[in-house]
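During the reporting period the student researcher (J.K.) took over the structure-prediction task from the postdoctoral fellow and processed the backlog of single-chain submissions. One of the processed entries is reproduced below for the supervisory committee.
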Amino acid sequence: MQIEHQPRDTRFIAFIDHQQARLEYDLLPRHGINFTFTYVPESLRGQGIAEQLVRTGLAWARQQGFEIEASCWYVRRFLQRIDSTSTPHRG
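J.K. obtained the following structure tokens:
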């Protein structure tokens, strides 16, 4: 599966079997990003497509140095899962 970033439309998309899955976002003031919506067609669900979209979007956002927010429940849950499994940093 290939994921395409469409910055003009503020989204990441994946075409699978003539169907489109997507991760949408809004750019925020002060170099922030809010992931707002994730969609995978019903016939393609359960194959990890949403997770791949989110991983790709988050990797790009981190590379750009964005402050990440998530109003999308799926992205928010994904971030919580990652935070709960990561080792805390000690300063």
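The committee noted the following: The two ends are 39 Å apart (CA to CA).
J.K. will present the remaining backlog at the next meeting.
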